[in-house]
Amino acid sequence: RRPLLDRSVLSFQSAFLFPMNGNLTIGKAMRWWEKVTHPNMREVESAQDLAYSLLNAGDKLVVVDFFSPGCGGCRALHPKIAQFAERNPDVLFLQVNYEKHKSMCYSLHVHVLPFFRFYRGAQGRVSSFSCTNATIKKFKDALAKHSPDRCSLGPARGLEEAELLALAANRDLEFTYNEKPTLVPIAEAIQMEAASIGGPWMPLPAAATQPLTLGSENGSLIPSGR
């Protein structure tokens, strides 16, 4: 008779890695980043999702958490990050799975894990660092510094323009970005408009364009051509 397989072995295999179409897929038991979550925590679905989420956050502090399912440091740190999220319901925590978004992380120059970036309103990115359980103080300090209530002038800035351009240039991503028009200083704009042919500026009378000199008798200003 063929020996029966131990059910505990079967349950262990099904709970962790199991083949699907020739590829290894992460089982539910290994999705540790989904075990402890809060309403202000969610996983990013795409580069466009990340960019839109930052732009639509208003003046709210946004923490972008770059992690990998196989990263031991990420897994060990996750419960503490979840505690910070629970204590700071006004802070948005966005999770970026490195294994699902390698190309996006490459464009954003994320090469070490776990890695965090903080964004706040019109200031855009205000902090960027890597930390572990041993250096969790860096995370605490950044959260304390950038989370207090304050008024930010202007709309949320989101990703840096260089990052947006890098994402748009990445052929592996479905990401569109319309470059912002270049702002010209007002003095330069007036000069350009005045010098353009057919511009709105009316030509001065011929007499007014002649250089003026002081009269010899009464000190009045008279055209030098007289």
Automatic annotation (TrEMBL):
Top-level taxon of origin: Eukaryota
Protein name per Swiss-Prot or TrEMBL: Thioredoxin domain-containing protein
Entry's Gene Ontology cellular component terms: chloroplast
GO BP term, pick one: cell redox homeostasis
Family in the record: Belongs to the thioredoxin family.
Keyword field: Disulfide bond, Electron transport, Redox-active center, Transport
One Pfam family matching this protein: Thioredoxin
Lineage: Eukaryota, Viridiplantae, Streptophyta, Embryophyta, Tracheophyta
